[in-house]
Design goal:
The chain is an alpha+beta fold. A two-stranded antiparallel sheet has the order 1-2.
Length: 62
Protein backbone atom coordinates (compact mmCIF):
# COMPACT_ATOMS: atom_id res chain seq x y z
CA UNK A 1 0.00 0.00 0.00
CA UNK A 2 1.52 3.36 -0.97
CA UNK A 3 2.22 5.96 1.68
CA UNK A 4 -0.09 9.03 1.57
CA UNK A 5 2.64 11.35 0.16
CA UNK A 6 3.69 8.88 -2.54
CA UNK A 7 2.12 8.97 -5.95
CA UNK A 8 0.87 5.71 -7.44
CA UNK A 9 2.34 4.62 -10.76
CA UNK A 10 0.84 6.35 -13.77
CA UNK A 11 0.28 9.74 -12.15
CA UNK A 12 2.09 12.94 -13.10
CA UNK A 13 5.42 13.81 -11.54
CA UNK A 14 5.85 16.40 -8.83
CA UNK A 15 7.67 19.64 -9.56
CA UNK A 16 10.68 18.41 -7.54
CA UNK A 17 10.88 15.27 -9.70
CA UNK A 18 10.64 17.43 -12.81
CA UNK A 19 13.52 19.55 -11.48
CA UNK A 20 15.70 16.47 -10.89
CA UNK A 21 15.07 15.36 -14.49
CA UNK A 22 15.83 18.86 -15.82
CA UNK A 23 19.12 18.90 -13.92
CA UNK A 24 20.02 15.44 -15.27
CA UNK A 25 19.27 16.42 -18.86
CA UNK A 26 21.45 19.54 -18.73
CA UNK A 27 24.44 17.97 -16.95
CA UNK A 28 27.31 16.82 -19.16
CA UNK A 29 29.98 15.83 -16.59
CA UNK A 30 29.34 15.65 -12.86
CA UNK A 31 26.84 14.34 -10.37
CA UNK A 32 23.46 15.14 -8.87
CA UNK A 33 22.47 14.25 -5.32
CA UNK A 34 18.90 14.41 -4.08
CA UNK A 35 18.20 14.74 -0.35
CA UNK A 36 14.95 13.06 0.72
CA UNK A 37 13.01 13.75 3.94
CA UNK A 38 9.77 11.90 4.72
CA UNK A 39 9.61 10.57 1.16
CA UNK A 40 9.92 14.02 -0.47
CA UNK A 41 12.80 15.64 -2.32
CA UNK A 42 13.88 18.62 -0.22
CA UNK A 43 17.23 19.48 -1.79
CA UNK A 44 19.09 18.90 -5.04
CA UNK A 45 22.88 19.30 -5.11
CA UNK A 46 24.57 19.54 -8.48
CA UNK A 47 28.32 19.15 -8.95
CA UNK A 48 29.40 19.98 -12.47
CA UNK A 49 32.83 19.23 -13.88
CA UNK A 50 34.51 21.28 -16.56
CA UNK A 51 36.65 19.14 -18.86
CA UNK A 52 39.64 21.13 -20.10
CA UNK A 53 42.08 20.08 -22.80
CA UNK A 54 40.68 16.61 -23.36
CA UNK A 55 39.28 16.96 -26.83
CA UNK A 56 38.86 13.80 -28.79
CA UNK A 57 41.49 13.60 -31.50
CA UNK A 58 41.27 11.06 -34.30
CA UNK A 59 44.18 8.59 -34.50
CA UNK A 60 47.05 9.69 -36.76
CA UNK A 61 47.68 7.68 -39.89
CA UNK A 62 51.20 6.27 -39.87
Amino acid sequence: MPMPDQQPHGTSQSSSEDEVLRQLRTLRFGQITATIHDGRIVQIDRLERARIGQRHQPPKNT
